[in-house]
Amino acid sequence: MIIKDAKFLMSNTKVEACPAPNKPEYAFIGRSNVGKSSLINMLTEQKSLAKTSGQPGKTQLINHFLINNEWYLVDLPGYGYAKVSKSSREEWRRMINFYLQKRENLTCVFVLIDSRHEPLQVDLDFIDHLGTMGVPFVIVFTKVDKQSALKTDSTIAAYKRKLAETWDELPQMFRTSSEKSTGRDEVLGFIEQVNAQ
Ligand code: GDP
């Protein structure tokens, strides 16, 4: 897919205030600092479309971008930031659950996972949650330039083993580096293919 146009539309806390659900929507989510903003900027080839995190966990907003006037890219607030208060965490949980359940044009969630770490419970819990709710999702292993391909292979294999304990079918998985644009064609190709269905 060629990105001809990518623009920020709006930020919301409420699903009802989001843009009309008249285009396929792809949402990006992951732990704070996983590289979500960098990935969005890499995919859209814009330096600062999504803001790279200055204050992780501070703003909890659903950010909509319009791509090629054809589909919505959504930047969802991250999870798992240790310094966030219990009430903020609860607020996040409520907002995200509402979004995942009610956003009728939500086509696929990209769950971002740092490829350097062994499976983390917070990520496994979120993936299980999506599966239980029946929300379509794929996994993106980020920052693969930070280590050898073998190490990334081993992280991915560990996730597959963990997920296979609960799920019969494993989600599609991508590996990306925002530094090197690794995985850009694969992720955009996937979106193009789903949009065409
Ligand atoms: P967010 O909080 O998930 O939006 O994460 P950011 O995109 O702000 O990235 C967090 C940190 O990781 C920043 O210092 C980025 O420069 C760095 N980072 C993000 N993606 C990559 C990547 O693919 N490779 C490398 N080497 N660093 C990355």
TrEMBL record:
<dbReference type="InterPro" id="IPR019987">
    <property type="entry name" value="GTP-bd_ribosome_bio_YsxC"/>
</dbReference>
<keyword id="KW-0479">Metal-binding</keyword>
<dbReference type="InterPro" id="IPR030393">
    <property type="entry name" value="G_ENGB_dom"/>
</dbReference>
<keyword id="KW-0460">Magnesium</keyword>
<dbReference type="GO" id="GO:0005525">
    <property type="term" value="F:GTP binding"/>
</dbReference>
<feature type="domain" description="EngB-type G">
    <location>
        <begin position="22"/>
        <end position="197"/>
    </location>
</feature>
<dbReference type="InterPro" id="IPR005225">
    <property type="entry name" value="Small_GTP-bd"/>
</dbReference>
<comment type="function">
    <text>Necessary for normal cell division and for the maintenance of normal septation.</text>
</comment>
<keyword id="KW-0547">Nucleotide-binding</keyword>
<dbReference type="GO" id="GO:0000917">
    <property type="term" value="P:division septum assembly"/>
</dbReference>
<dbReference type="GO" id="GO:0046872">
    <property type="term" value="F:metal ion binding"/>
</dbReference>
<keyword id="KW-0717">Septation</keyword>
<dbReference type="InterPro" id="IPR006073">
    <property type="entry name" value="GTP-bd"/>
</dbReference>
<keyword id="KW-0131">Cell cycle</keyword>
<keyword id="KW-0132">Cell division</keyword>
<protein>
    <recommendedName>
        <fullName>Probable GTP-binding protein EngB</fullName>
    </recommendedName>
</protein>
<dbReference type="InterPro" id="IPR027417">
    <property type="entry name" value="P-loop_NTPase"/>
</dbReference>
<dbReference type="Pfam" id="PF01926">
    <property type="entry name" value="MMR_HSR1"/>
</dbReference>
<keyword id="KW-0342">GTP-binding</keyword>
<comment type="similarity">
    <text>Belongs to the TRAFAC class TrmE-Era-EngA-EngB-Septin-like GTPase superfamily. EngB GTPase family.</text>
</comment>
